[in-house]
Amino acid sequence: MAMSAWTMEQTFRFPQGCGEPVRAESVNVTPQYTDEHTENAYRLTGIYHLTCMAVFDGEGGTPEPEGATMIEEIDMDGETGYFEYAVPLYVDLPSETGEGASIKAQDVRAHVNEDGALCVTWKVDCLYGDNMDDESDDSGSERAEVLETQPESSSRPDLVMREETESSSVRAAAEPEQRQPVAAAVTAEKPRAAVEASETSQNSPDEVRAFIAGLEDTYTVFSYPSYKILVKRDAETD
Fold this sequence. Notes:
By secondary structure, the protein is α+β, with helices and mostly antiparallel strands. The protein contains two helices and eight strands.
């Protein structure tokens, strides 16, 4: 892993009416950037986001230092003013640099120059190189090891499923052996029923004759319409 370091500096002046800057109560710098690979470099582009709370002397006149950046918008609360500013960030690293370069701002300080400009300075540390890729590879290898151990645990349900399928196949093979005698018994009973049915069908005429022979002699009164008799007589005469 390689590291590059450099120092940044930015001077500011303020609108008339704010007074003369005395000091900075608080100042922060936060790098914000994106990365991309070009034909000749691994490029980081973005901003250094600067926030500052400065104290002014309202009785003094506002200086106009040359070369200082004008802060047009500042929130004044008495003799204290808050402002923000974006300093351009543009860094080209070697083209063989892998993904994951990082930039950090450290040792941020602010002071007032002799010409009345508020000067903010900070140090930049840029980390890049193969070691950062190695760290990502190590984390990837750890993940790979974890993934390799997962199939061992996942194989246990397969064993259970295999045992269940084997036991079910044994049951399926054993059940037909128990059912076959029952089926044979049923098929054996069917011929008996057929024989009995045939015997009853053969004996039924004798039973009918015996029933008829046992009946008593008698007669039945039946009324017959007279017009039918006349029609019958006419038919006989014809």
